[in-house]
Amino acid sequence: MSKPAAHGSIRRRLLLSLLAGAAVLAFVVYFVVQTVARQVAQESQDNVLAASAQSILDGARLSGGEVNVDLPYSALSMLDSISDERVFYAIHLEHEFLSGYADLPAPEGDPSGAPAFLSAEFLGEDVRIASVRRRVSTGAGRSYLKVSVAQTLSGQKLVLSRISRISITIGAGFFLISVFMAGIISGSAIRPLDRLTASVSRRGPKDLRPVAAPVPTEMVPLVASLNSFMRRLQQSLLRSEDFIAEAAHRVRTPLAIVRTKAEVIQRVSDDPETRKALKEMIHAIDDSSRTAGQLLDHAMVTFRLDHLVLEEINLLHLVHDTVERLRPTSELKDITMQAFGEQDSVIKGDPILVQNALHNLLDNAVKYSPAGSQIDVVLALNQNEAEVCVKDTGPGFPADELDSLPKRFVRGKNAEAVVGSGLGLTIAKEVITAHGGTLKISNNPGGGACVSLLFPLP
Amino acid sequence: MRFLLIEDNKQLAEAVVDRLILDGHVVDHAPDIQTAHDFTATTSYELILLDVMLPDGDGRTFLAQHRKQEESTPVIVLTARSQVADRVGLLDLGADDYMVKPIDFSELEARCRAVLRRRGGVAQNLLPLGDLRFDSLSGTLKFPDHDVQLRTRELRLFEVFANAPGQVFSKSILVDRLFSYDDDVTENAIEVYVGRLRRHLKNSTVKITTIRGLGYKLEPE
């Protein structure tokens, strides 16, 4: 049986989509945590910077049109307390630089007095600058006083990288948990399918009962069509079997009537001519019934081979059974039949078919052996095969036909030669081939034919 | 021997009964399982011939019931179906043997003999002839001081003579009785087997004599 082509895997697809979702979510988590933390850190620094600038601005006094600025200690110490940052400041009146670092870049302060912020580079370091301003009246008229405070960002960077590490850990942890969950989810989603597969594949080839176990809603249509398919298959199998049996019955019963009546008349008739005619008639009936029988057997063998059920077969028992079955027939010709074989050997196969194959070989041997001769059935075990050899003391096979004989049994080729005695060998050959073995035809050194069935040992 | 034939086809049954009577057997015919049970309840048979397909059931049903009632009468199943298909279960159900129709009666006779021999329990069917007794079941000539085991063809030939002592059988009739329809044998082959029987009967009062131009006959004394 050919394996259906696989296209994708539901489990893998499910797993991949769950993982992709989890990865996106993990990244979002990482990004959100990172952004929020950065904002919080920035805001708190901004607040401190603004407060510091505001307290300097609050400390500025105007006296006689002059601006006096005291740097309150607290204004810069609150910045120091955060970490070992460097702190810069600058005080401007309008655009006139008053004190601090003249080059310190400063955002335009908001006229309403709200603090303004700027990130910039100063003296080779990243800094955050806060500016506040307020209107003042000087001698020169109304103007505004602007205070800028800056702080380096190295400490904040440290904090941020720690936060970043934490958010990576959170994101990764989230992802790992999702992987675990995805594994469990895809497993449990696929389980009913696995169960169905197991329950169907455990069956023998002849078990065509419908699947009765409950399945998830989504699988109901599949199981329903599977069940209806099996029902149809079973019906058609039964029909084939019935047909073969019925055909056999229809053919053989009339033949049996004619043959028996002919035999009765032949027995009671005193006329040699009548007896001779009847004898020829019976001979013809036997011929046709044997052919019909073999054709029907062949149909049945083909049918069983299509649905091969393998069982363990004790080959020695089977050989003895078959020999005993044919012994009365062989005794009619005073043929002695013997079965040899000491070792028990077990092969895998359909016992009825194997027996039928051997029966055909023995039947041929009895048919072609002269009265009073001997037929030996020998079971021998080689390294990896069991050989059942039927040896007779008949005329044997013509030497020039030994090579061509097996070729004649190729099905379909010269069917004319197959009908008749060839079919018995054809059946044997088909059975043994289906069991992975071979049919061997040879002549005994001492005369007579030798036909062997070679079975592979399990 | 007393046979019970269970067969629903009337023509076939009649022919089989006629044929078995020719061999000196007594045959009752049952067309269905019910009648068969009625027969086996009142009469004891040496052998039952059972068709597989019957109007009131499968032959297997009869076989199963027959075995359940611990009836020991041997059963030979006659099947018209595929040999491959019908083997299933027949022997398991307790059939002693089976034959595929059309029946070759020499083969049936051989199979009956084999079954009865295997069962071993049949009352000895010894036919006294002159100074010997003939056991047709085992194929033995029992002399006062020794036994001679006949081979099948010798046995069947001797049976023909022993069942009708004094009757003359022509060679052609003997060929018909002795050889299957398949065998292509000349009448001279009969001389071989008559010769063998004469050797077995060398010191006996039983003689097979040649009637020139007519054939052979058996003389007990």
TrEMBL record, chain A:
Residues 246-458 form the Histidine kinase domain. InterPro entries: 2CSK_N, HAMP_dom, HATPase_C_sf, HATPase_dom, His_kinase_dom, HisK_dim/P_dom, HisK_dim/P_sf, Sig_transdc_His_kin-like_C. SUPFAM superfamilies: ATPase domain of HSP90 chaperone/DNA topoisomerase II/histidine kinase, Homodimeric domain of signal transducing histidine kinase. The chain crosses the membrane at residues 166-185. The keyword Ribosomal protein does not apply. Residues 187-238 form the HAMP domain. It catalyses: ATP + protein L-histidine = ADP + protein N-phospho-L-histidine. CDD domains: HATPase, HisKA. It comes from the Bacteria. Keywords: Kinase, Membrane, Phosphoprotein, Transferase, Transmembrane, Transmembrane helix, Two-component regulatory system. GO terms for cellular component: plasma membrane. GO terms for molecular function: phosphorelay sensor kinase activity. SMART domains: HATPase_c (SM00387), HisKA (SM00388). Pfam families: 2CSK_N, HATPase_c, HisKA. It is found in: Membrane. Its EC number is 2.7.13.3. This is histidine kinase. It comes from Actibacterium atlanticum. The lineage of its organism: Bacteria, Pseudomonadati, Pseudomonadota, Alphaproteobacteria, Rhodobacterales.
UniProtKB/TrEMBL annotation, chain B:
Residues 124-220 bind DNA. Residues 124-220 form the OmpR/PhoB-type domain. One of its GO terms (biological process) is regulation of DNA-templated transcription. Residues 2-116 form the Response regulatory domain. SUPFAM superfamilies: C-terminal effector domain of the bipartite response regulators (SSF46894), CheY-like (SSF52172). It comes from the Bacteria. One of its GO terms (molecular function) is phosphorelay response regulator activity. The modification 4-aspartylphosphate is found at residue 51. InterPro entries: CheY-like_superfamily, OmpR/PhoB-type_DNA-bd, Sig_transdc_resp-reg_C-effctor, Sig_transdc_resp-reg_receiver, WalR-like, WH-like_DNA-bd_sf. One of its GO terms (cellular component) is cytosol. Keywords: DNA-binding, Phosphoprotein, Transcription, Transcription regulation. The lineage of its organism: Bacteria, Pseudomonadati, Pseudomonadota, Alphaproteobacteria, Rhodobacterales. This is Transcriptional regulatory protein QseB. The keyword Transcription applies. The keyword DNA-binding applies.
